[in-house]
Amino acid sequence: QDPGVLLWGRPGLYDTPRQDGVWVAHGHVITPEPRAENGRIAVDTGAYATGRLTAALIADGAVRFCQTG
After folding, report:
1. 24 pairs with which residues across the strands?
2. If you ran DSSP here, which 8-state letter would residue 17 be given?
3. Whole-prediction pTM value?
4. Is residue 66 classed as helix, strand or coil in its secondary structure?
């Protein structure tokens, strides 16, 4: 694969719903609030800039978020 794709992802990666039924937890894309949708669990709330560090608790088919600040 192209090194840029490996580092940054392909265009539309975070906007396109997953079709394989697998959930992926990720950071590296700052979101105002953590979210679990379209097969993705986004936990990067930009702690370095916002002071809010987020963790995802994933168990028994459910996701719960914990945040500082």
Report:
1. 40
2. P
3. 0.78
4. strand
